[in-house]
Design a protein that fits this description.
alpha+beta; 3 helices; 4-stranded antiparallel β-sheet
């Protein structure tokens, strides 16, 4: 799938990294500015985005609370592919039985805008961040 094919579909990326419009999220857990998106424990060879904003919020929360990154803020960005992408299924499936998907790219994704940010408290769990009140509260 080419970058042009993806323009009609919004894609999101969740991270603890503070990014700005135009930044490129690269594979290998690196961002264009040289910082790591995953810490030193994970070095993927693909960059990831999802059309499901709730999945992006989950990944943002995970990035902000894992890999020794406690106290980080979870950010969700709308992104667009830099080059070719492939669609992969994620597990588990949605509660209605439909497939959850993610877009993967060897070239990365360009940040269009920040959609949401939130700093998790130590006692907040993945289940709590799936609620709209987590992201809407100030």
């Amino acid at each position: 799938m080419s970058a042009e094919d993806n323009l009609s579909q919004q894609l999101f990326h969740g991270t603890h990294a503070r990014l700005k419009k135009g930044d490129i999220i690269l594979p290998h857990g690196k961002l264009e500015n040289g910082t790591s998106n995953f810490g030193e424990t994970s070095k993927p060879n693909l960059a990831y985005a999802t059309p499901d904003i709730d999945d992006a919020k989950y990944f943002a929360f995970h990035a902000a609370t894992h890999y020794g990154q406690s106290g980080k803020t979870a950010h969700v960005y709308e992104v667009e592919p830099v080059g070719e992408t492939k669609v992969k299924k994620m597990f588990p499936k949605n509660s209605d039985g439909s497939d959850r998907i993610q877009h993967v790219s060897k070239e990365g994704f360009k940040v269009k805008r920040r959609v949401a940010s939130k700093t998790p408290k130590p006692n907040e769990t993945v289940a709590k961040i799936s609620s709209k009140t987590f992201w809407e509260s100030k």
